[in-house]
């Protein structure tokens, strides 16, 4: 099993450009998450999804959009990139509807906005 | 508001000595508690979790953690540290009611000195 796969691993954007971070998982997990990690700040939840067709905002959703058309895929869209979106982005998934399941993380996507 | 606190940004310990990485939480309802480890340029990896039952939980790589409800703590411990344990450690909590969100602490960098 590949687990959670994120692409690209690295990307440099200019201010105002847009892009999509891809995330796919092959574990048939219903729950998927996007986090950003900034130094000394831990992980902040951007968006999450409890199943195909269902998404909801996390702590820091501004400037981002998501969709969940299939169980496997949960892409994160950045519109009009800003320097404040320079960060490392992690996609994660979990399997438990009761909340007891741990998160499985991708390897991360490092984004720089110049 | 629900939160997780890791009061130490960095913990230094000599190889072979016991280590403790501290975590306290504030949530409504009963918590599910998790520890994750992150090695450089990698995603987070699950170490262990407390759901219910025995307050002492054993996990991967010889780590264990003790749930203390009265002190609202979930400290990570290991009897004998290895240089290879040097990494960034995150505590996370998920409540048994409400949303499907995991809340992360800011992380503690563990440095094991040879």
Description:
- The complex is a heterodimer of chains A (114) and B (114).
- Chain A is an all-beta fold.
- Chain A is 0% helix and 51% strand.
- In chain A, the strands form 2 sheets. In chain A, strands 2, 4, 5, 6, 9, 10 and 11 form a 7-stranded mixed sheet that branches. In chain A, strands 1-3-8-7 form a 4-stranded antiparallel sheet, with no helix packed on it.
- In chain A, a hairpin with a 3-residue loop joins β4 and β5.
- The mean pLDDT of chain A is 93.
- Chain B has 114 residues and is mostly beta strands.
- Chain B has no helices and 12 strands.
- Chain B has strands spanning 3-5, 10-14, 19-21, 24-26, 31-38, 44-50, 56-58, 64-68, 73-78, 87-95, 103-104, 108-113.
- In chain B, the strands form 3 sheets. In chain B, strands 2, 5, 6, 10, 11 and 12 form a 6-stranded mixed sheet that branches. Chain B has a 4-stranded antiparallel sheet with strand order 3-9-8-7, with no helix packed on it.
- The radius of gyration of chain B is 14 Å and the shape is globular.
- The termini of chain B are far apart.
- The relative contact order of chain B is 0.34.
- Classes of the chains: A mainly beta (114), B mainly beta (114).
- Chain A binds chain B through residues 4, 31, 33, 35, 40-43, 45, 48, 50, 56, 58, 90, 92, 99-100, 102-108, and chain B through 9, 32, 34, 36, 41-46, 49, 51, 90, 92, 94-96, 99-102, 104-107.
Mean pLDDT of chain A: 93
Summarize the helix and strand pattern of chain B as letters. Answer: EEEEEEEEEEEE
Question: Mean pLDDT across all residues of chain B, rounded?
Answer: 92
Report the C-alpha radius of gyration of chain A, rounded. Answer: 13 Å
Helix proportion of chain B: under 10%
Largest sheet of chain A: 7 strands, mixed
List the uncertain runs of chain B: none
Total DSSP helices of chain B: 0
Please report the two chains with the greatest interface, counting residues with C-beta closer than 8 angstroms to the partner's C-beta: A-B, 24 and 25 residues
Query: So what's the overall shape of chain A?
Result: globular
% residues in beta strands of chain A? over 45%
Low-pLDDT segments, ≥5 res of chain A: none
* Total of DSSP H or I helical runs spanning 4+ residues of chain A: 0
Shape of chain B: globular
